[in-house]
Amino acid sequence: MLDLKTMAKRYHAARAAFLDNAERAGWKTESILHPLPGPDGGPLHMDLAFCGDPEAQDLLMISSGTHGIEGYLGSQIQSRLLEEGIVGTTRDDLHTVMVHAVNPYGFAWHRRVNEDNVDLNRNFIDFGKPLPVNEGYKDFYDILNPQAWDEGHSARLKQEAAEAIARMGLAAVFQAVSGGQYAHPEGLQYGGVEPSWSRRTIEALWARFMAGKIRATQIDLHTGLGEAGNGVLMTYGEGSQPRIRRARAMWGDILVSPPADGPDVLAQGVLGPHLERLFPKAEVLAVVLEYGTVAPEDVVAAIAADNWLHRFGDLESVQAGRIKQMMLDAFYSDAPGFAEKTYKRAWDVVSAASNAG
Ligand SMILES: [Zn+2]
Questions:
Q1: What is the whole-number distance in angstroms between the Cα of residue 93 and the centre of ligand 1?
Q2: Could you give the domains of the chain?
Q3: pLDDT reading at 88 higher than 80
Q4: Ligand 1 center–CA 329 separation, angstroms
C-alpha cells in the first residue's frame, strides 16, 4: 500500500540519487522548478546533468519520466550510468545531456499523465492545426472511463482489452485506446489543447542544446509495453532515411513504426518526432527505449483506475493506496534480475550511441 508521503519519498530519493551521482561523476547539474507541489507539498523539478563540450557538434540526450511514473526505472538506469562513469566521456566531440523527470508531476504523483491529465507523449502536436480525431476511442470510452471503480470493473476492463487485442491486434487497439484523444479532457489518453509545462520547458532546453549541432541522438526511456524486462528500441519513419540507417548501424535492431506525419501513425503528438521536426537542418534521431513490465491489459487497467481515482476518488483512501501500488507494479518491477537486465540493455544502447562518431 502506498500513501502520499511514501510516494513523495520515492520521488525525492530517485531525484537525489540522480543529482548525487551526476555531481560525483563530475557532471554539471541544473534544476528547473515545476509550478505545482508534489504529494507531500514539497517542490518538484525537472533535473539536468551535462557532460562534455557544449560547443561539440554532436549531442546525446537521455531522458526519463516523460510518462511520469515510468521514470522510476528510467531514473534508476540514469543514476547507474552516471555512477559507473562510462557515458559521455568517450569522445571530445560529443555533448551529453541527461534529463531526469521530463514530467515530474506524474513521476511524483505516480501518474502516467501530467498535472492537466495530459499524456505528455501525445501533447507534441501542432496546436495551430485542427485537433486530431481518434475515431476508435469512442468504442472504448465507457470501459476506460467508468463512473465507479471496483474489482469487478477492473476485471471487465482487463477481459475486454484482452479480447479486443485478440480480435483487432495490438497495434489497432493501441491506436484506439492509447494513440491519443483530444475530445475528452477528463478521459484517459488525453493529449491536451495547448503545449504543456513540460513541453514548453523541454522545447526551450532543446533550442539551447541544439544550437550549432549537426547531429543529435535522443533516447527517451519508457516502460509498460512488451515482454517483461526486455528493452526494445522504437522510432517512427522509413527504412531509407539516413537517421534510420544510422540507428540500424549503431544498434542493429530497432522497431520502425509508420511515419509520424503519415495516416497510419500509431500515436499522435509523440515527443521524438517533434524534436526531429524542430531541427530539420541537423540529423536528429529520436528513439524510445521501451521496457516491458506486465501484460497490456494490466497496464490499461492501472492507468484507467488511476484516472478514475484523480477524477472521482479520495487520494488519501485505502483504495487510492491500492491503485497507486497497481500503477507502480504496471510500470516498474523489483523482481530478481529485472534491474540488472534492464540496465545492461540501456548500457549497450547508450554506449553504442556514445561511441558512434
Ligand atoms: Zn511511456
A1: 30
A2: 4-126+189-296+329-355 (3.40.630.10)
A3: no
A4: 14
Q: What is the dihedral of CA 333, 336, 338, 344, to 10 degrees?
A: 150
Q: What's the pLDDT tens digit per position in 242-256?
A: 999 999 999 998 999
| pLDDT digits 0-9 by tens, 203-235 | 999 999 999 999 999 999 999 999 999 999 999
Measured in Å, residue 92 CA sits from the centre of ligand 1 at 32
Phi-psi region of 144 (alpha: psi -120 to 50; beta: other; left: phi over 0): alpha
**Residue 311 Cα distances to 65, 184, 187, angstroms:** 22, 13, 9
Please name the amino acid found at residue 334.
Answer: D
Q: How many CB atoms lie within 10 A of CB 68?
A: 29
What separation in Å is there between the alpha carbon of 254 and the centre of ligand 1? 17
Strand pairing class (255-257; 94-100): unpaired
The continuous run of DSSP H or E covering 244 comes out as helix 242-251
**Separation of 70 CA from ligand 1 center, angstroms?**
6
* Residues, the chain: 357
CA 195 to chain CA centroid, Å, is: 16
Distance CA 225, CA 77 (A): 17
Predicted confidence (pLDDT) per residue in 190-200, tens digit: 999 999 999 99
* Cα(3) to centroid(ligand 1), Å: 23
